[in-house]
Design a protein that fits this description.
Length: 354
C-alpha cells in the first residue's frame, strides 16, 4: 500500500499532463517539423515497483537521425508513432520502487517527453541510474560525464591508445565528443589538432580548451592545413564526421596510426550512397588500423571514467560547454542544429527548470 506522502504525490500527479514528441514519419534528408507529432497524455500513477520521472533536460544526439531510419543498426529504429528515444536527466517525482526514492536525480533513456514511468524491467532497459549532482551540473552530466564524454573517453583511450608526444587530430572538435577527446588527449601528453566549422569554434578550442591548433574546414583546404599542423603525421585520428575530412586525415597518417571511427555526421542526411574513404590504402602503407566503436559496449566501465573526468572538471584541467535550447516544443528545430553546425558545444534541450 502506498503511504500517506506517496498518496499525496499521486493525487498531485493526476493533475499533471505529459507533453510528448513522437516520430510521425521517416524523414528524407534533414528532418523537418512535419516528421513529428505532438501528443499530451495524463501522467499515470506508478504501480508496484514503478517510478515516475520528471524530465529536466534531454541530450540531443546525431545518432537520433539514424534511429529515425528503418535500417538495421546497433539499436532498433524508433517505431512510427512511438515517443522519440532520447537520453536525459530527470528527477524521480513518485516512487513505489525500493531502488529509487522521490527526489533522486537519474540518467537514462527518458524519451522526448515531460514525464516517463518505469517498471523494474523498463528501468533496466532504459539504463536508469542515479547520478551524483556533486560531480557536475545537470548539463555536464549530459556532456563530459554523460554519453558523449564516455564516447570520447573510451574511443580515445581504448581504440586510439594515445602515447605522450603523439599527434592527435579530432574532427567535430567544438562538439560534445570532440571537446572531451581533445582535452583528454592534451592531459595525456599529446599534441592536439582540432577540426571544426568556423573561426569562433576554432578560436574557442585553442584559446579556451588548450588545443595546439584548429583547422576551420569551412575556410580552406583541410589536407594542406593538416600537412602544416601535423609535420610528423597523425598518430591518432578521432573521426566524428566521415566524408572528405576522413579522406584528408587518411592522406596524412604516421606509421602505426590508429583511426577511431566514432561517427560520420557529414553522411547522416545523405540519401544517396554513403561516401566511403577513398584513401584507405594509406592504412596498408602506414601499417595503420581503423576501428569502429559503440559507447554502450563500455557501460560496465563508465563509473571509473566518470570519476576520472569529474576529477579533471573539478581541478579545471577540463572545461565543458553546453548549448541549451529551452522548451520541448522546440525539439524539431533544435535537433537540426546538429547537422547545420548551429550548436556550439553539447546540444541540450531543457524541458523543465526543476
Ligand atoms: N560511436 C558512438 O558510440 C558514438 C556516441 C556518441 C556520438 N557519436 C558520434 O560522434 C559524433 C559527434 O557527436 P556529438 O554528439 O559530439 O555532436 P556535436 O559534435 O556536438 O554536434 C555535431 C557537430 O557536427 C558538425 N557537423 C555537422 N555536419 C557536418 C559536416 N557535414 N561536416 C563536418 N562536420 C559537420 C557540426 O560542427 P561544425 O560546426 O564544426 O561543423 C556540429 O556542431 C557524431 O558523428 C555522432 O554520431 C558516436
Amino acid at each position: 500500500m502506498p503511504h500517506r506522502r506517496t498518496k499525496a504525490i499521486m493525487s498531485a500527479l493526476a493533475s499533471l499532463s505529459n507533453r510528448q514528441v513522437r516520430l510521425a514519419r521517416r524523414p528524407t534528408g534533414l528532418p523537418t517539423r512535419d516528421d513529428w507529432s505532438f501528443t499530451t497524455e495524463a501522467v499515470a500513477e506508478p504501480g508496484d515497483g514503478e517510478v515516475v520521472v520528471k524530465t529536466l533536460a534531454l541530450s540531443l544526439d546525431p545518432a537520433m537521425r539514424g534511429w529515425m531510419n528503418d535500417a538495421k543498426s546497433y539499436i532498433a529504429p524508433v517505431a512510427l508513432g512511438d515517443v522519440m528515444r532520447a537520453g536525459g536527466i530527470g528527477r524521480v517525482v513518485a516512487s513505489r520502487s525500493d531502488r529509487l526514492k522521490e527526489g533522486d536525480l537519474v540518467t537514462g533513456a527518458l524519451g522526448v517527453q515531460e514525464y516517463a514511468r518505469f517498471g523494474e524491467a523498463d528501468a533496466r532497459k532504459a539504463g536508469l541510474a542515479k547520478i551524483d549532482p556533486r560531480l557536475g551540473s545537470i548539463t555536464q552530466w549530459l556532456n563530459v560525464l554523460g554519453m558523449p564524454g564516455m564516447t570520447g573517453y573510451f574511443g580515445l583511450m581504448d581504440i586510439g591508445q594515445p602515447k605522450p608526444g603523439d599527434t592527435v587530430v579530432v574532427s567535430g572538435a567544438a562538439g560534445a565528443v570532440g571537446q572531451t577527446v581533445g582535452q583528454l588527449a592534451r592531459i595525456k601528453g599529446c599534441r592536439v589538432v582540432g577540426i571544426a566549422g568556423g573561426r569562433d569554434k576554432c578560436d574557442w578550442v585553442v584559446g579556451e580548451l588548450g588545443f595546439d591548433a584548429c583547422i576551420d574546414y569551412k575556410a580552406g583546404d583541410v589536407k594542406a592545413a593538416l600537412k602544416e599542423h601535423c609535420p610528423k603525421g597523425i598518430d591518432v585520428y578521432f573521426d566524428n564526421v566521415g566524408g572528405e575530412i576522413l579522406d584528408a586525415a587518411l592522406a596524412r597518417l604516421a606509421r602505426g596510426a590508429r583511426i577511431v571511427i566514432c561517427g560520420a555526421i557529414s553522411q547522416y542526411n545523405n540519401m544517396q550512397a554513403m561516401q566511403g574513404p577513398k584513401n584507405y590504402m594509406s592504412l596498408l602503407v602506414n601499417r595503420a588500423r581503423m576501428e569502429g566503436m559503440v559507447v554502450f559496449d563500455y557501460v560496465d566501465r563508465f563509473p571509473a571514467a566518470i570519476a576520472e573526468l569529474a576529477g579533471y572538471l573539478k581541478d579545471r584541467r577540463m572545461k565543458s560547454k553546453e548549448d541549451v535550447v529551452e522548451g520541448i516544443e522546440n525539439f524539431p528545430e533544435a535537433l537540426t542544429k546538429l547537422f547545420t553546425g548551429g550548436n556550439f558545444g553539447k546540444l541540450v534541450l531543457q524541458v523543465s527548470a526543476g
